[in-house]
Amino acid sequence: MARRETAGLARGMTMPAVLTKTPLIDAGLPGRISTHKSGGRDRWTDPLKEVPVDRIGATWAALDEVLDPELPISLVELGLVYGVELIDEIARVQVTFTSTACPCMEFIREDVKDRLEIEPWIRKVEIIEVWDPPWTTERVTSAGRTKLGRLGVGI
Amino acid sequence: MNEPLEIRDLDGTGMSALRRLILTLADSKRMMGIRYSDWLLGAPSIEAGIAVSAMAQDEWGHARLLYAMLKDVGLDPLEVEHERPGEDYASVGALDEPFDHWAGLVAAMTVVDEAISVALLGFSRGSYEAARTRVPKMLAEEEFHASLAKAWYRRLADSSHKARTLLHDSTECLLPPVLAWLGADDASARAMVVSGVTESGESMTEVLRERLRDLTALVEVNIDRAQPNSGWDEDRARGPGRPDEEAIERVRGDRNRALLVE
Predict the structure, then answer these.
(1) Chain A within 8 Å of B132 (Cβ-Cβ)?
(2) Are B140 and A132 inside 8 Å of each other by CB?
(3) Does A29 touch chain B (CB under 8 A)?
(4) Contacting residues for A95 by C-beta, under 8 A, at least 6 apart
(5) Strand partners, A121
(6) Looking at the complex, does the CB of residue A137 fall below 8 Å from at least one CB of chain B?
(7) Which domains does chain A have, with CATH numbers?
(8) CA of B61 vs chain A CAs: smallest distance (Å)
(9) Cis peptide before A120 (omega within 30 of 0)
């Protein structure tokens, strides 16, 4: 029987803080950034060396490193990730977009796949596009609001 | 709320009717976007041009989501979007030709875009799950279109005699094909109402009249007297005519066909 784990992020909740990973810090950014298809410069951590006990939490942590292509906060902080499900080594990620004609849709899909597929417990990523409930700025997490506020972006 | 529609339970007639309903909405959205895009460089101000640019983007996003529903009814969305001749478009006839002046576009964003939103609202309240889950986001985005449309409509209605005349004439010209499209009451439309997939043309037309009554009265157009035009073609799901060829070439992406990436 397939091993199924699932978790969504309810409005107002913060991402489960189960992992502490040390970002690679050097003068620039990790080398693999050069292959980041959207051209983004997200600060991705190295993949974990072992499969964690809380794979769902670790998947959320990895997703929280994927920045929105237009705003310097993560997809999780922006409230675009509606749920994560793991079926064996397949990660199903429910993602919405800020608008129905978001020009960055393809970049976001690619970035999510690229980030998750480097982790040892994920062999394949399936992006499930969802529109219900519709995204509004209400879905931005408190952490996301704080970061945007520091940049002078009020929502 | 209606019980969710099971696509597999639809017979041939029901399947065909749902296919047609999706196409009338998707094609109209696509053409609305084209008409907005016609004015990216010709609007009265930079700000207005940017606004229609954003609205064109929205319309195409909505069209994309609607075309994607065609998978459910056995059609290939890519083929539908990029291969069909203009003759096959089930878009509202009010969008067949480009608008000669800004007042024409303001009338279209007020009357036509609103009519499409009313049709989408009926669709979102029905039994088809994809419509229930995708259309609310579209309607939320459309609120901005409606706000801008009303602001421009009032602004023109309150300006020069020429502006009022152009707005009046454009509104009177657009209403008949819009009412024919929204109020269609042929066998296919009735099948969708009976199945609970959408609301009746009559009720949706009343919603549109209610929404626009005070606004069109500003240029002395009595929306309650406006009547649908004749010549509704049940097979084509539209009134007479077809979108202009140049627009269809842009819609299909003919010029850059070799670069199509999906």
Answers:
(1) yes
(2) no
(3) no
(4) A75, A80, A81, A82, A108, A109, A112, A127, A128, A129, A130
(5) none
(6) no
(7) 4-9+38-150 (3.30.300.130)
(8) 4
(9) no
DSSP H or E run through A8: strand A4-8
Give B221: exposed, middle or buried? Use CB within 10 Å, 0-12, 13-18, 19+. Answer: buried
CA distance A125 to B61: 24
Neighbours of B147 (CB within 10 A): 10
Quote the Cα angle for B30-B65-B22, to 5°: 70
Cα–Cα distances (Å) from A44 to A34, B21, B97, B110, B166, in that order, read: 12, 45, 50, 47, 57
Instruction: Give me the amino acid identity at B244.
Output: D
Q: Closest Cα of chain A to B158: distance in Å?
A: 33
Query: Whole-angstrom Cα distance, residue B15 to residue A94?
Result: 29
- Element of type H or E holding B44: none
Residue B181: count of CB within 10 angstroms of its CB: 28
DSSP state at residue B72: G
Q: How many residues does chain A have?
A: 155
Identify the architecture of domain B10-253 in CATH.
Up-down Bundle (1.20)
Q: Where are the domains of chain B?
A: 10-253
ipTM of the complex: 0.84
CA-CA-CA-CA torsion for B44, B50, B55, B57, nearest 10 degrees?
A: 140
pLDDT in tens, A80-98: 999 999 999 999 999 999 9
Type of residue numbered B259: L
CA–CA–CA angle B157, B51, B33 (5° rounding): 95
Chain segment B18-66, per-residue pLDDT in tens? 999 999 999 999 999 999 999 999 899 999 999 999 999 999 999 999 9
- The residues pairing with A4 across neighbouring beta strands, listed in sequence order, are A87
Burial class (CB within 10 angstroms; exposed 0-12, middle 13-18, buried 19+) of A22: exposed
Task: Confirm if B60 and B33 have CB atoms less than 8 A apart.
Answer: yes
